[in-house]
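User: Can you model how magnesium ion sits in this protein?
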Amino acid sequence: MRVLITPEQIQQRIDEVARDIAKSYQGQSITIVGVLTGCIVFLADLIRRLDLPLKIALVQASSYRGKATTAGTLHIQDDLLPELKGRHILLIDDILDTGTTMKHMVGHLQTLGVASVRTAVLLHKRERQQVAIEPDFVGFNIPNEFVVGYGLDYDDEYRNLPYIGILDAPDAS
Ligand code: IMP
Ligand code: MG
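Assistant: Here's the modeled complex, given as structure tokens:
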């Protein structure tokens, strides 16, 4: 395991991202929609820095059938979502990789009659992106490496690491 982003770097950057988000909403009430499970650590740290009236909702979306990198169809599990009609939504995920998840989630939220949707991701792997979507708020642009920690997993493990690390040679099955 190699450390790519330290806990201190993460916290410092989240301070800046939170300021950008608060500035862009200017006191407006928002609903943060977190994409489970990868969003949880980022979401928990971000919301405590957001000086805005906000609600939290969670949705599960997974495009990954295999352990690490094999893309499949996107499954959206939105049983946990409250009524979002008319709300300003900030959609949060751990990483924008191919872009499939964010693109589909934005489309899905728009069918629910929301007032607006903006997106925030901790990590953006630009080189891997296949779907056209530009996240509104990005923590870090990262190289094309498989990363874990701070919410991100490999086979559902490593989410608890306080840093973002590069997992050497995960089997891509
Ligand atoms: P996308 O739909 O291809 O953009 O994939 C987004 C989802 O894939 C994220 O929510 C992650 O769960 C997962 N993912 C993509 N890249 C990585 C990675 O490097 N490490 C861990 N999970 C990843
Ligand atoms: Mg995920």
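A couple of observations from the model: The beta strands are 2-5, 30-36, 54-64, 71-77, 88-96, 116-124, 137-141, 147-148, 164-166. The chain has one domain: 2-166.
User: Helpful, thanks.
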